[in-house]
UniProtKB/TrEMBL annotation, chain A:
<dbReference type="InterPro" id="IPR027417">
    <property type="entry name" value="P-loop_NTPase"/>
</dbReference>
<keyword id="KW-0813">Transport</keyword>
<keyword id="KW-0067">ATP-binding</keyword>
<keyword id="KW-0547">Nucleotide-binding</keyword>
<dbReference type="GO" id="GO:0016887">
    <property type="term" value="F:ATP hydrolysis activity"/>
</dbReference>
<dbReference type="InterPro" id="IPR003593">
    <property type="entry name" value="AAA+_ATPase"/>
</dbReference>
<dbReference type="InterPro" id="IPR003439">
    <property type="entry name" value="ABC_transporter-like_ATP-bd"/>
</dbReference>
<feature type="region of interest" description="Disordered">
    <location>
        <begin position="1"/>
        <end position="26"/>
    </location>
</feature>
<protein>
    <submittedName>
        <fullName>ABC-type multidrug transport system, ATPase component</fullName>
    </submittedName>
</protein>
TrEMBL record, chain B:
<feature type="transmembrane region" description="Helical">
    <location>
        <begin position="58"/>
        <end position="84"/>
    </location>
</feature>
<feature type="region of interest" description="Disordered">
    <location>
        <begin position="1"/>
        <end position="36"/>
    </location>
</feature>
<dbReference type="GO" id="GO:0005886">
    <property type="term" value="C:plasma membrane"/>
</dbReference>
<keyword id="KW-0472">Membrane</keyword>
<dbReference type="GO" id="GO:0140359">
    <property type="term" value="F:ABC-type transporter activity"/>
</dbReference>
<feature type="compositionally biased region" description="Polar residues">
    <location>
        <begin position="14"/>
        <end position="27"/>
    </location>
</feature>
<feature type="transmembrane region" description="Helical">
    <location>
        <begin position="141"/>
        <end position="161"/>
    </location>
</feature>
<protein>
    <recommendedName>
        <fullName>ABC-type transport system involved in multi-copper enzyme maturation, permease component</fullName>
    </recommendedName>
</protein>
<keyword id="KW-1133">Transmembrane helix</keyword>
Length: 268, 304
């Protein structure tokens, strides 16, 4: 597997000032959330949130627990209906527009990895050979004949990422792909995400791992209080907040008492 | 937010056509002709379900147990007397066994995928809710039909080798025993099983988790086996159901409809006489309504 193994954060485009980036917007984003609101009953999770995602980038959503990262991701993937606002997909007309990796991926037991992915592949016309190539790409080629219930957590996540790319969807959303994994596996998963983006796919991830996000993401959106508190390249954000790291950006952008769990809709 | 990375590129706004500057260099070119149509997608889901049933030991054990019970009842019952006496022997046990087996085959079919998050994943593929439900149903139905049909075929074979008098091949007149009548019984039993399976699939789609699926399955079994018949009796006693309408009203309960159809098309036919037990047409309509209605509810629930 090729991939970006550098420890240095990815740099924004030279001379990419905000104004110039707006000029780039002559090409619309591939996925766009417009004035999204989402509520569970009386509890409003997202409030008038707007966000756009470009092709060939890794976009990371970060923010405290309970700020609606997963809800936003699922809404963008079309799995949740917003209470207000809309999601616009501007990509090509393909059989599968958005690939999805759940936070805790699991597969039907009793099948091998190759059989499982072949089933999904068959729904969009991919052959077993296509699916095996996808497994090779995420480094799971040797586990193709292993039963899915015998996979480790990291291997299941990688199989899930391979599944998310089946049909070459122009947008791939990954919900906390590195969560609960050892550092090596987490890094590997983010390397795979970068490779997918390098092929032109818009990759959208949620994460709490600031170090990996800083190293891998082209764009970071900090969610707080139901909206996007700040967004931009990690380095640009650090400059804007006059801090040294994405973690510092996070702490500066997310106001309030960090020793308390923030619960949307309540006053805890 | 915009792409700020050095390799960021855009996508054309044509909505349906990738722009020429879209970064697709390393992306495999999708061969649209290989993308299956609706029937093809249903077929893929059916294949997955059939393999699941074949590889799940519980279903295999259930099928073997059903075959053993039916074979035992046949051999210790009226196998030597013929096919129709065997039908009379098996009917009551099957009224309980078929719903139990059918519910076992279906009650977790959809809720398990939902719990694993695979329903969400499938939603990102070009598979509609009704295609998915129909595929799951058809796949499970294959397993159920093998279990029920296979067991009854064994019972029929046991009658064929145990019968003391040779049976007439064609039931050309009333009062004649015939393997054709037994085959009719097998078909009716299979149809009943398919209806209960559809109900189980609907419950599986409505359930929030494995536990609620089990609870719903138990409630459904009680309702199907006892509840609806009791309601019919109560309706008759209270005068809600007129005596004259009873034969048609029995079609409301799948169990009564099945029982009525067996009586009307197998037992009474062989006996040559007897009171009308049910309206075959109403019973058939009732069974079809339960089947279609259940699958419609399942599709609605998966798609919501």
């Amino acid at each position: 597997m090729k991939g970006n193994t550098s420890d240095t954060p990815r740099q924004p485009a030279p001379n990419a000032s905000d104004g110039e980036r707006r000029t780039d917007r002559a090409r619309p984003p591939i996925l766009e959330a417009e004035s999204l609101s989402f509520a569970y009953g009386d509890v409003e999770i997202l409030s008038n949130l707007s966000l756009s995602v470009d092709a060939a980038t890794v976009t990371a959503l970060i923010g405290p627990n309970g700020t609606g990262k997963t809800t936003l991701l699922r809404t963008l993937a079309g799995l949740e209906e917003p209470t207000a606002g809309a999601v616009h997909y501007h990509g090509p007309d393909v059989p599968r527009e958005i690939g999805y990796l759940p936070q805790q991926p699991a597969f039907r037991p009793g099948f091998t990895v190759a059989e499982t992915l072949s089933f999904y592949g068959s729904l969009v016309g991919e052959s077993r050979a296509d699916v095996l190539a996808r497994l090779d790409r995420v480094g799971l080629g040797d586990a193709a004949d292993r039963r899915v219930e015998a996979l480790s957590g990291g291997m299941t996540r990688l199989a899930g990422i391979a599944q998310a790319t089946i049909g070459d969807p122009p947008v791939v959303v990954l919900d906390e792909p590195g969560s609960g994994l050892d550092p090596g596996m987490s890094r590997r998963i983010y390397d795979v995400a970068r490779e997918i983006a390098a092929d032109g796919t818009a990759v959208l991830v949620t994460s709490h791992d600031m170090e990996l996000v800083e190293r891998s993401a082209d764009v970071v959106a900090v969610l707080a209080d139901g909206g996007v508190a700040a967004s931009g390249h990690p380095t640009t954000l650090a400059d804007r907040f006059d801090v040294d790291s994405l973690l510092d950006v996070y702490e500066a952008a997310v106001s309030g008492d960090h020793s308390r769990v923030r619960v949307r809709g309540e006053t805890a | 937010m915009t792409a700020e990375g050095a390799d960021a590129k855009g996508v054309g706004d044509t909505g349906t056509t990738p722009s020429t500057d879209q970064p697709t260099a390393n992306r495999a070119t999708a061969d649209e002709s290989r993308v299956p149509g609706s029937l093809g997608r249903i077929g893929r889901v059916v294949g997955r379900e059939v393999r699941t049933v074949a590889r799940t030991r519980t279903y295999v054990v259930l099928a073997v147990a059903l075959a053993a019970v039916l074979l035992g009842l046949t051999l210790t019952g009226s196998a030597t007397a013929g096919y129709v006496p065997t039908v009379a022997d098996l009917l009551t046990p099957l009224e309980a066994l078929v719903p139990v087996v059918a519910v076992a085959f279906g009650y977790r079919a959809i809720v398990s995928d939902a719990e694993r998050g695979e329903l969400d994943v499938l939603e990102t593929y070009p598979v509609t809710a009704w295609e998915h439900v129909l595929g799951v149903y058809a796949g499970r139905a294959v397993g159920l039909l093998v279990a029920v049909g296979g067991s009854l075929t064994l019972a029929g074979a046991a009658v064929a080798v145990s019968q003391e008098e040779p049976a007439a091949i064609y039931a050309t007149q009333r009062g004649v025993d015939s393997p054709i009548l037994f085959a009719r019984f097998v078909v009716l039993t299979a149809a009943f099983a398919l209806v209960v399976l559809a109900v189980a699939i609907a419950l599986s789609a409505l359930a929030n988790g494995a536990r609620s699926a089990l609870a719903l399955a138990i409630v459904a079994l009680i309702g199907l086996l006892v509840g609806l018949d009791l309601a019919l009796v109560l309706g008759l006693v209270e005068g809600v159901i007129p005596d004259a309408a009873l034969v048609d009203t029995l079609a409301v309960s799948p169990l009564s409809a099945y029982r009525g159809l067996v009586f009307e098309t197998v037992i009474t036919t062989a006996a040559g006489t007897g009171p009308q037990a049910a309206s075959p047409l109403a019973s058939l309509v009732g069974l079809v309504a339960w089947l279609v209605g259940s699958l419609a509810i399942a599709s609605w629930s998966v798609g919501r």
